Amino acid sequence: MTKIQKILELNAFDMDRTEGLDPAAAALIARRKRTFGPMSMLFYERPLHVVRGDGVWLYAADGSRYLDAYNNVPSIGHCHPRVTEAVAKQMATLNTHTRYLYDIVYTYAEKLLATFPRETSNVVFTCTGSESVDLALRIARHVTGGTGFIATENAYHGNTTTATQISPSSASTEAANSNIYFVPAPDTYRSAQGQAGPILAASVGEAIADMKSKGIRFAGMIADSIFASDGVYPGTPGFINETVKVVRDAGGLYIADEVQPGFWRTGAAMWDLQRHNFVPDMVVLGKPMGNGYPIGGLVVKPELLTDFGKKSGYFNTFGGNPVASAAGLAVLEVLEEEDLGRNSRETGAYLLSELKRVAEKYDCVGDVRGAGLYLAVEFVKARETREHDKDMAVRATNDMRERGVLLGTEGRQGNIWKIRPPLCFSRENADFFVDSFAATLAANA
Fold first, then answer.
1. How far apart are CA 48 and CA 417, in angstroms?
2. Domain coordinates of the chain in residue numbers?
3. pLDDT tens for residues 32-51?
4. How distant is the alpha carbon of residue 37 from its chain centre?
5. Cα separations (Å) of 265 from 6, 110, 324, 399, 423?
6. pTM above 0.85, yes or no
7. Separation between Cα atoms, residue 180 and residue 157, nearest integer Å
8. CATH 3.40.640.10: does it fit domain 81-337?
9. Taking a C-beta distance cutoff of 8 angstroms, is the pair 282, 304 a contact?
């Protein structure tokens, strides 16, 4: 069986191999290793020393600039002036814990909730997506009385103890939780046309049946609806709805992780769940909601909170604090005023089309897929066999870095590019990306 590539192994730099690097970069790596120990990672064969960000660009210490096609956390662009101003102004006015009354958190909550289906009309603010996931699982266990959860085989949902248990793509070597089941992600590249949805629903149904046979009560399923860490599988709109029904019919809750595909990332709607036209029981949010400022949230059906709140309760000392709320509110305003949803849809479609046009000439590219500004390029040894080619993906990733474009690899075999630039990514930026892509394939294929 092919070894599954963990997140920390994908295109990672070996900090013990600094020969040939710029002396200043080598010195920083030595400091990093000395202070952080082995718990840190760097990207690329030649790590990048960045000193500034602006919109879609990152600037290196040597003055070079790089087109950022990877960082979804600064969702509306690096160092956006509206967020910077809002955070600075609020920090200079008030920032305290969440057990006082102040207007801005309610203004933000109301504007945020107005973008969701009316059934999910409550929000609990946290500081990170991991905390949001942890809370969602707690609520699901309480409401259903169950302990069994389902996630996909290469999912990533966070790094708390509980979130790590449902994140097989993490580097954890801890013993697996026997109440957690993993099912294959809907591989829309290798599945027959229109079969990805039924296959996923069947896998989830089998997992639930196996839980029942072992006396495990089913609590729910968590997934992001573009299956980001599994390889980016947008599928056709609505293809996951059969799976949602299977979960609900078995008495479980469906938790939508919108940390990566949310905030107009996939182009069709504010939330990817709306692209599929279903209403989840809970929705997990994370750092893109603050353009990088630490904030997370759980949007939830109010009836799920009622009994949980009475018997368990939850508080977060700084979740939804005034400065975090100011950052989140500024992001929502910019998304609307700069029409970044339309840009995600139109520029994403253009980029997808152009990447496909270039890829047709090269047998090493098996598939180009995506929705909005969330795209993937899958490298294979040959289109006929569709055999994964991690080595080509890594070579091409590092070549793109040398040409001034930043992206990352993902998937169970590490052979897939993950492309998710800030939402202000323009058609001109797309052309630069495509030209670099063509040159990289010509040099490496």
1. 18
2. 45-76+340-444, 81-337
3. 888 888 777 788 888 899 99
4. 26
5. 24, 21, 21, 26, 7
6. yes
7. 13
8. yes
9. yes
